[in-house]
Amino acid sequence: MADIAVRLARKGKLAAVIFVIGKGMPYDLSFQECFKYFWDWLKNYHNHFIIVHTKWSMLEPGAEAERAAREREFSEVFGFTDVDTVKQVFIDSKWEDEDPGERDCMAFNQQKKALAINSMNALITEIALASNIDCAMLPFRKTRRMHEVDRQLIAGAEAALDAAQATLDTTDRDLAVLNKEMREISRRVAEGESHTAPLMCRLEAIDVDTDVEIARKEAWIYWFWGWRCLRVETRVPISNVVTTDGTFRISWTDWERTAFSVQVTCSTGLVPTFYMGSLVVYGASRHVHAAEIAQIKAELEPIRAKIKEDQEDLKHKQDAEKYAKEVLEGLNKLIEENTLVSRVASMQELRLDQLGAVHEWYKAAVGKQLSSSDLREYIQLLGSLPVRPATSSFAG
């Protein structure tokens, strides 16, 4: 069947479909299957069908009645109510001379040959006058053997679809739970970060080495000349000391500093005045705000630990989500492929131009345990067909 169809595709045109059956041969199951296959396949071209009965001679006694009986038998076997539904032609294909016994041998043979030639010419004329069928628009109807493979394909595809759909549903539910959990974790992280943001800003502002004024002492002298020592003691380490002059010119000597105190000596320079200036003492900000810094860090520590724990948990769930989406992608691809296989296997017809390669694949697939690679090869042979895959709401 497929070889004939491949030849038709190569030929491009079809004039008639001729079945040849010899006199006395039964319309057995093989012949019936063959005829019904082509009759169903070429359902739009029944007027192109011709049944040629060979080895008939109209010179034999009772030939007309036998011929009519043969036509009725054909119609009964195939369920035709009208014997003219299919053209039936009776010819004698034996061209050699034969000895009819007592009959006039030459005249008999000449008459027989003439009738045979006339019947052949009539058949050829009828074929020549018939309009051609354009095979480019002619689909190929699958054969019984192909349908056997199709049943195997559909069974395998449906089993794969059921398993894939069950896994897809489970993965969908898992993804829904994951998404809900990730939203809750993200909310907690955002809430924790919003709580720590002002504390972090304050900590960044005070936990630094920037100088902060921690003490100031004014210098007063009640003599017109002389020296005066100023001493300042602090509760935090001193990082810097600055001296300022008063309204009149004075001079400051070098100052000495210990961990928590500083001493500066000043002179009036023989200029009578009472106010000499100021001694300004600075300490590092982190030393000045040590108690507040410790309090902020103590408050931040459990919140940061919780945020870090939530972020690690979120990372694990994001990895799980990524894996689940990869599983979904594979499942959707598997569902799409098997849906396509099931659809194509359910088709009754194929394009003629596909038939050559597909037919070889079908022959190799008969009775074989088909694998996923076989199915992919099958899909590639057929080319892409429009198919609506089963998709997940989370498939990205």
Task: Please provide a written account of the structure.
This protein has 396 residues and is an alpha+beta fold. The protein has three domains: 17-129, P-loop containing nucleotide triphosphate hydrolases (Rossmann fold, 3-Layer(aba) Sandwich), CATH 3.40.50.300; 147-204 and 292-382, no CATH class; 211-288. The chain has helices spanning 2-11, 29-41, 63-78, 105-129, 144-206, 285-288, 290-346, 352-365, 372-382, and strands at 13-14, 17-22, 49-54, 87-90, 133-134, 139-141, 211-220, 227-233, 240-245, 251-252, 256-257, 261-267, 275-284, 349-351. Helix 1 runs antiparallel to helix 8 (352-365), helix 5 runs antiparallel to helix 7 (290-346) and helix 7 (290-346) crosses helix 9. The longest helix has 63 residues, at 144-206. It starts with a helix and ends in a 14-residue tail after the last helix. Residues 384-396 have low confidence and may be disordered.
Features:
396 residues; alpha+beta; Rossmann fold; 3 domains; three-stranded parallel β-sheet; 9 helices; 14 strands; 54% helix; 18% strand; rod-shaped; disordered C terminus
